[in-house]
Amino acid sequence: KKNAHNTYNTHVNINHIMPPSTARRRRKLEEEESTPPSTPPRRGPRSSTAKEERGKGGGNTKLGQIGPPKSPIKRAIKLVRTQLYRPKIPIFSSAFVLAIIFIIAPYVDKTYHKISEEGRVASDLGDVRFDVGKFTVQWQNTEQTLKITHKRAKFCFRQRLCPITETWSSISKRPFLTLASGPIKVHQLIHGHFRIQVLDKLRTTVQTIDSMERKTCEVHYDGRVERKTRTTDVEEEDKDDGGGGVALIEVDSSGSSSSSSSGSGNNGNSQNSNSNVELVECIVIKGTVVKEDAWIDHFVNTFYERRSKMYHALFSDDQESEIELAKQKANAKLRASYSVALASRSDDRIGFTIIWDEIVPGVQRSPRRNRRMVNLNHLILTHAVEKRERVYGLGEQYTSIEHTGRRVPIITGEQGVGRGKQPISATAELLFKGSSGDWWTTYSAIPHYVTSKARSFFLTNYTYSEFDFTEENAISVHVVAPTGIVCGQIIAAIDIPGVLQAYTEYSGRIKPLPEWAMRGVIVGMTGGPSKVRRIEKQLTDGGVKIAGFWLQDWSGFRNTSIGIERVWWNWKLDEDLYTDWHALREEFEKKGTHLATYVNPFLMDSKDHHGDLYRFALENGYFIKNKKGEGYGFVSEPGVTFSLLDLTNPECVRWIENVIVDMLVATKAKAFMADFGEYLPFDATLKSGELPILTHNRYPEDWARIQKRALRRAGLEKTGFFWTRSASLLTPSFTSVQWVGDQLVSWDNRDGIKSALNGILTGGLSGLTLSHSDIGGDTATPGRH
After folding, report:
1. Phi, psi at residue 6, to the nearest 5°?
2. What gap in Å lies between CA 28 and CA 100, rounded to an integer?
C-alpha cells in the first residue's frame, strides 16, 4: 500500500510540471525501455491495491493514467473503432458480414420461392390446341406450359401470314393456379381507412391438367349487361344499368349449366331466353389441385404406413395390402377440382372464369381420424413476364407510375394525409391512427394493369385482390374469393394505346365535357352570396376567366364542437344562407358562368330540419346496418354523426336518385360533385346479403351510376356534368370527369402536386382518361400556408 501510494504521489508531481499529453508520452517511453525487446509486453494481474484505489475514485485519467473517456458518446465511438471495425479476426467485421448478406440474400430469396411457392404441374395430356375467335389456347406438354396467342388480322393479306403474338403464358413446370386457405383480417383504422391482411395457412402445391375440350358456355352477367355500344353517342335507356362481372358457365350435354357448389349467381334453372345470358363457344380446362404432404405429414404417414405393412404382412395378402395403402395415401391428401373456361369477348379480349370446390376435406393425418373441412377462400393466378418488362395502371396510384418490384393491394379508401411525408404524417398518426395513409392507399383502385410489352390483364370481380410484381419473371394475382369463382379478361394489342382502346370497350369511355366547362376555371368556395360576388369581382378584375362557381355549402354549413366548419349533408337548398340563390345564378349566367353544387352518399343526423332526410332514410331502412341490425353510425368529431346509404337496396337507390334530381331541378345548377364512395365498412350488413369484401370496391361505381341517371332525368345530359372522387372498373361508363382527391399544399411526390400527376397518369391507363386535381391542393401546413 505504501509503494502504491508513493507512485500515486509521483504521478501527481509529474502532472503538476508538464501537460497530461506529454506525461502520457513520457510514461509510454519509460515502459518500452523497461521491457526487454525480445519479450512481448504482457499485462499482469492487477493488484488488489489498485482495485481498491479505483473503487475509491483514485488513479484515473485526471491523474495521468490512460482510462476510458467519461463521455458516453466518446466511449461508444471508441468501442466501435476498436471492436467492430478493427477486430482481431477480420472475418467477423460488420462490413464483411453485411457484404456477405447482400451477396447471398437474392439467392436465398429465389431458393425460398422455389421450395415454398412454385410447386409443380402434372398432366397426361399431349399437346392440345384450340382456336377461339382470334385467340389460340394451347397446352404444350413437353414444356408443361399453357399459352394464349393472338392473330393480328388487321395487318394481314392472307390468314397464314398473320403475325402471332404471345398474349399470356404460364411458367414452365410451375402451377398457374394455386388455391389457399387462411383467415382474412380486416383492420378498420378510422372511417375510410382500411388495411387487409390475407394469411395463407395452407396452400396447394400440385396442379394437374386432366382435360382440355371445346364446349358451349353460358355467359352470365349477374344482372349487369355488358354493353358493346358504350363508345357510341347513342345509348339505350336501359343500358346504363349494365356492366359488371362476366361469368362463363359450361353447358353440359343435357343443356343445363354446370358449375361448382359455390354458385355464380345462376344455377341449372337459368333459361337461355334470359336477356342476361348468352351462349358462346369456349375452351374448358379441368383438373385438380393437391396439397402435398408437409414434413409433419410425411413423418406421421411413414409411421402409419410401416405399421400397416406389418399388420397386412401378418394377417392379409401382400398385394392387397399394397393397393390398400396406396388408396389410403392418395385419399388422405387435400384435393380440390377446378375448371377454367375461356371464351372470346371481342377481337382483342378473351375472358376467363375459374370455378373450384371451395370447401373440401382437409389432410387426413391418421386413418381413423375425422377430416376437418377446409375453406379454400383465395386464389393465386401466376403467369410469366420478361425480366425487364415494366408494369403500369391499377387505377390512381399516387406514389409511382411504374409498379415493378411492388405488391399493390386493390382496395378503395381514403388516400390519407401526408402518406409518409414528415412531420405531417407523424402528427396525423398521433391524432388519428391510420389517417396518414400509405404509399398504396388510393380513392380509385382498379384491378387492371398494362405492361411495357402491351400485355394486359384485368379482373371483373370487385373483391379484394393483391397484384404481386416482386418476382423478376412472374406476376402473381392474389384474389380473395370466398364464393369459389373468379372472373377476368386478357387483352392482346400492338401497343399501350391499343390496350387502352380494348379495355375501354369493356369499361366504357368518358365523354367530352360541355363546351362551357372549358372556358375558364371553376372556383370552389363557401361563404354565402356576398363573399361569392366579392371573389368573382376580384378574379374578373384580375383578368381570370371563370367557367363556374362550385358552392359546396349550398345546403348550409355548421361549426362543430372542435371549431371545424362542416357542410350540412342534407341535400336541400339552405335559403337562410343563400337567400338570393336564383338571382345570383341568373346574374352569373349572363356572364357565361354557371353554378355547381355538392352531394355524397351520407346523411347527417340533426334534430332540426337539417336532419329530415336522415330520419326518413332511417325509418325506411335505407342505411347499411351493423351486426345487430341497427343503422351503422359514423362519428367524425364530437356531435357530428352520419350514416351511409345502402346501394344494394333498390328502394334506397330510387329514393336517393329522386333526391338528386330534385336538387338539380330546384337549384338549376349545371354541375355538381358526387363525393366519397369508399367508406363501406367490412363489418356491415347489406340488404342484398352480399359480403362487404366482395362489394366494397363496387360502391363507387354504383354511386356514379345513380348520378348519371339523375343527370339525364334532369335534362342535363348534354349541357351538364358531375365529377367523382372514387372509382372502380366501370366508373368511366358513368362519370363525367374524375377528381384525384385531397393533396397537400406542396410540391412533393408523396402527397403533393407530383403525386396528383402520378394519379392522373396511372388512372388514365385504367380508363379514367379525363381527370383533374385541385390547383392549390387541399391540406395546408399550419404556419406556412
Report:
1. -65, -40
2. 40
Assess whether pLDDT exceeds 50 at residue 550: yes
Tens of pLDDT, residues 713-732 = 999 999 999 999 999 999 99
d(CA 712, CA 722): 11
Indicate the SS3 state at residue 638.
coil
User: Which letter, b or e, does each residue of 308-321 get, where b requires 16 or more Cβ atoms within 10 Å of its Cβ?
Assistant: beeebeeeeeeeeb
pTM of the predicted protein model = 0.80
Say which residue the cell 405492361 belongs to: 451
Prior bond to 423 cis, omega within 30?
yes
Round to whole Å and give the CA distance between 291 and 460.
Answer: 28
Grid cell 342535363 in the structure block, residue: 716
Q: What is the DSSP string of 163-215?
A: -EEEEEEPPTTS-SEEEEE--EEEEE-STT-EEEEE--SEE--EEEEEEEEEE
Chain-centroid distance, C-alpha 31: 70
Residue type, 234: V
Return the H-helix or E-strand segment holding 283. Answer: strand 277-291
The pLDDT confidence band at residue 402, using thresholds 50, 70 and 90, is very high
Q: How far apart are CA 403 and CA 762, in angstroms?
A: 10
Residue 82 half-sphere exposure, CB side, CA atoms within 13 Å? 7
Number of H helices, E strands in the chain: 16, 37
Q: What distance in Å separates the CA atoms of residue 409 and residue 440, rounded to the nearest whole number? A: 7
Q: How far separated are the first and last CA of the chain, in Å rounded? A: 74
Q: Which residue has the higher pLDDT, 45 or 401?
A: 401
Nearby residues of 530 by Cβ (< 8 Å), 6 or more positions away:
none
Residue 410 grid cell: 386493390
All three cell numbers of 238, joined, read 336501359
How many percent of the chain have pLDDT more than 90?
Answer: 58
Angle of the 48-55 helix axis to the 2-17 helix axis, nearest 10: 60
Q: Using one digit for the tens of pLDDT, what is the confidence trace for 80-103? A: 666 554 555 555 566 677 777 777
SS3 of 305, please? helix
Q: Are 465 and 411 within 8 A, CB to CB?
A: no
Q: Which residues pair with 634 in a beta bridge?
A: 642
pLDDT digits (tens, 9 = 90+) for 755-773: 999 999 999 999 999 999 9
CB neighbours (10 Å) of residue 371?
14
Give the burial string for 569-596 (b: 16+ CB within 10 Å, else e): bbbbbbeebbeebeebbeebeeeebbbb
Q: Dump pLDDT digits (tens) for 588-618.
A: 999 999 999 999 999 999 999 999 999 999 9
Element (H, E) at 480: strand 474-480
Helical spans, DSSP H, in 42-93: 48-55, 72-79
pLDDT, mean over the chain: 82
Quote the CA–CA distance of 596 and 674 in Å, as a whole number.
Answer: 11
CB atoms closer than 10 angstroms to residue 691: 16
pLDDT tens profile 38-64 = 544 444 444 444 444 444 444 444 444
Does position 21 have pLDDT exceeding 70, yes or no?
A: no
The confidence score (pLDDT) of residue 362 equals 82
Residue 581: strand, helix, or coil:
helix
Asked if residues 618 and 643 have their Cβ atoms less than 8 Å apart, the reply is yes
pLDDT at 151: 84
Q: Which of 85, 105, 107, 102 has its CA nearest to residue 94?
A: 85
Residue pointed to by grid coordinates 399394397 = 322
Q: At what angle do helices 2-17 and 20-34 cross, to 10 degrees?
A: 130
How far, rounded to the nearest angstrom, does the alpha carbon of residue 565 sit from its chain's CA centroid?
32
